[in-house]
Prior knowledge:
alpha+beta, about 475 residues, FAD/NAD(P)-binding domain, globular, D-Amino Acid Oxidase, Chain A, domain 2, 14 helices, about 25% helix, eleven-stranded mixed beta sheet, binds flavin-adenine dinucleotide
Amino acid sequence: MKTHARVIVIGGGAVGCSALYHLTQLGLTDVVLLERDELTAGSTWHAAGNCPNFSTSWNVIKLQRHSTRLYSTLAATVGYDINYHVTGSVRLAHTRDRVDEFRHVVSQAHAQGIEFEMLSPAEIVERHPFVDTTGILAGLYDPYDGDIDPAQLTQALAKGARDAGAKIYRGTRVTSIERLPSGEWRVHTDKGSIQAESVINAAGYRGGEVAAMVGEYLPIVTLSHQYLITEDIPALAERGEARLPLLRDPDVSYYMRQERQGLILGPYEWKATAHWLDRIPDEFANQLFDDDLGRLEKYIEAACERVPILGTAGVKKVINGPIPYAPDGNPLIGPAPGLPGFTTAVRSRSASRRRAEPAKSLPNGSRTGSPSGTCGHSIRGAISNSPMTSSCWPRRSRPTSTSTASATPPRNEPRVVRPRPHRLTCASLPRARSSAPVAAGNAPSASRRPAIQPSRKSLSVVRRGTRRSNVSARLLRNA
Ligand SMILES: Cc1cc2nc3c(=O)[nH]c(=O)nc-3n(C[C@H](O)[C@H](O)[C@H](O)COP(=O)(O)OP(=O)(O)OC[C@H]3O[C@@H](n4cnc5c(N)ncnc54)[C@H](O)[C@@H]3O)c2cc1C
């Protein structure tokens, strides 16, 4: 392993590889990525891969649109095929407030040259012929939404970065991080140490562990998010190559999109399930949680009513994986306050409508010097060790009132920050309930992804007016 680089990225998921790729595009080729397992071993390998541009935040719209633009050219640029479909998406409004929100977002998007459209119920059906628009007041059309294979995307970004000179060390776990008198960072791994001017924490749901290595607290908690994939649906097969737009129903809280000749349904649960409140099991990588479709029954019922063809299919697969969330659902991106040269790029996912791709938050602004990320700092600022102020972190909280000045030693004084146990709290998710950590003995081998057993849970039981209380029991009995 090299012993020195300008920038070290910790974590080889979609975000870390994107950061690495974008750094090389800026001309920074002396850059290194450290990944404790394999690329995509965290949340990336099992993501549904939806790529919306919608957000109620100006900056997040901008970031997301950067991603979708990048994805449309990346395969050709780096010479690595990516399964990327631009299908457009339709978002449904059940209430006047939601219609107002859509109008607000449409005008923000138009101001950025992004052609979102408001749709009447009849226009919704023109775009998505299987939607029952009963009770729907309006829709929003995002012409650039779509889906991508997240593992291929990550590999393509990694290839582009490697081709430009970046080094990627897999099977290399960061164990501690030390600030040197020179202001540089020394990153210790189980394969040796490496020094750099800047470090980017892109460790996903383990972002809190890495932050703790430098004495930083990240307000994130791991939730489990599930989606299911149905078997083929004849009505979709009959349409041949035509693909439905992705459908989002933020009031009920789910996304639904076509996957081959079937559908994917992914609810964001209002009552989320938190995991690992004490610590993340060390061996958890390339793994999923057990599926728990019973939790999703009310979303499944609502989705079957909205798109009746969904209720005609059986369930082929259920994916239930870890996803890090900040209390407000926003990504945590930008220079860590009081830690010059240390940047956070931990993406969190919103259960409602705020969503971001940190993957692209490091890129656009870095090239232009314009703001990037939700706090308005570009990565260039971090790389040049520019001073940072906590005012750019309006949504982040630090555990104590310790000022950034006192938390940071004078420049020439060594700062050795020892890892401390990272406790995750969930104060802002009062309804979340904790579940038992995955027991080491029960966990599938970390070196192999679990074979996902096809389960034949018929969604049609929901359509046949089964009493809600019986639905999950029957779904599970059919499994
Ligand atoms: C079921 C499900 C569906 C989803 N669907 C979508 C979707 O449709 N669209 C979407 O945009 N997002 C989706 N997401 C969210 C998406 O998966 C994540 O936001 C994204 O993958 C995060 O990427 P990441 O690179 O930040 O983290 P990860 O992919 O978790 O990568 C972090 C990496 O850091 C490594 N690492 C951790 N600690 C260390 C260490 N100490 N040393 C070295 N390496 C370390 C890990 O091994 C891992 O490879 C979904 C998530 C789930 C669970």
